[in-house]
Every structure is written in C-alpha cells, then in structure tokens.
Amino acid sequence: RMNMFGFGKRNCRKDELFMSLSRIVDENTSPEQREKMMAGGNLISMQIGLAFNLLRNGDATSQLSDEEFKFFIIIILQGMNEGLYENIDVSSEVKTNAFIFQISDGYKNFANIFSYYVEDVLRIFEKISSISSEEWVQETFQEGKKIWGKLAENSGDMMPIADIFEKKELVLNVKKVDLS
After folding, report:
1. 123 vs 26, 48, 119, CA distance in Å?
2. Of 93-97, 140-144, 148-152, 155-159, where does mean pLDDT reach its minimum?
3. What is the dihedral of CA 152, 158, 161, 163, to 10 degrees?
4. Is this model's pTM higher than 0.85 or not?
C-alpha cells in the first residue's frame, strides 16, 4: 500500500467524500477561523512528523505494528484536536471534518505519513469510539490535550508528544485492540 511515486494513488479532487467534507468546512467557517485551524493543524502535523521519524523505535513503540502505532497516535491526536478547538468556535462537524483531513493523507501529492483515505479514517474513528470508555483510551486522549496545551503556550518544548511514549504500559494497551 506504500507507494513512493503516487502511482495508483487517488486524487483528492476526484474523491466525492473528501470534497463534500471539504465543502462543509469551507462553508461553515470564517477566513479567520480557517487561519487558526490551519496554524493549529500545522503545529499538530509537526508533532506527527516527529513521532513517526523519531519515536517509532522506542522501547514501547518498537513492539507495535505500524497499524497499532498509527491507531495510538490518532487517539493522541483526537485529544490534541480537542485542545485546538477550545478557542475556535465551530460546529463539531467542522472540527471532525478538519481533523479527518489531517489524517487522510494517502492521496496523490499528500504527505502519505498515515497513507489513509477518508473512509479509512472514518473506520478508525468508529473503532476508537467503540472503545472510548476504556480507561487507557481516556488517559491517552487527555495526554493529547496536555500536549496541545504545551504547544499552544509556546513552552519551548519542541517535542511534547515524546512524553506519552515513555509510558510503556499505556502505549502497549493498543495491542489489545482488534484492528482487523
């Protein structure tokens, strides 16, 4: 599924689901809100990049499959996203759609870090929502909110996402999830 040159990758502009979600975001936000969303999204993207590049082979993370690692990161990101939107007054539909775009990067000319299309992300959100009452999921989500807090207050910590990966027991919980 990893494809370096984008052959066979879908074009997001020809993806009806992607475009409809995009329209919802555009039609229900002001330019100022979109600017804040973009700036926050960029900060979050940097943490994603650091996690994949520098934290993938840690003590706990080296024991995860790629899908488990991505799944755990998406729970963290849900918390970060929640933090981001505490100061941006938009509907939950807009928040969710904008967040979906952050992870749906499998299209042509996209970053391809997760290599997911919109429907893959929706499937993962469904799975997370089915286990959202589990304590480790709640804790991971709260850690994500804390990470956003550190980013937002410009704490000087360039890699706040690294802290959660030191919590080995927390990270390894993801192995219990059936991701098939």
Report:
1. 24, 20, 6
2. 155-159
3. -110
4. yes
Cβ atoms 65, 8 nearer than 8 A: no
- 3-state DSSP assignment of residue 143: helix
Burial zone of 165 (CB within 10 Å; 0-12 exposed, 13-18 middle, 19+ buried): buried
Q: What is the DSSP letter of 156?
A: S
Band of pLDDT at residue 158, cut at 50, 70 and 90:
confident
The amino acid that residue 165 corresponds to is F
C-alpha angle 82-106-76 in degrees, rounded to nearest 5: 25
Condensed to tens digits (0 to 9), the pLDDT of residues 135-147 reads 999 999 999 999 9
Polymer length of the chain = 180
Question: Cα–Cα distance between 120 and 143 in angstroms, integer?
Answer: 24
Q: State the Cα–Cα distance between residues 110 and 61, nearest whole angstrom.
A: 25
CA distance 148 to 40: 9
CA dihedral 119, 176, 166, 135 (to 10 degrees): 90
- Closest by CA to 100, choosing from 82, 112, 118, is 118
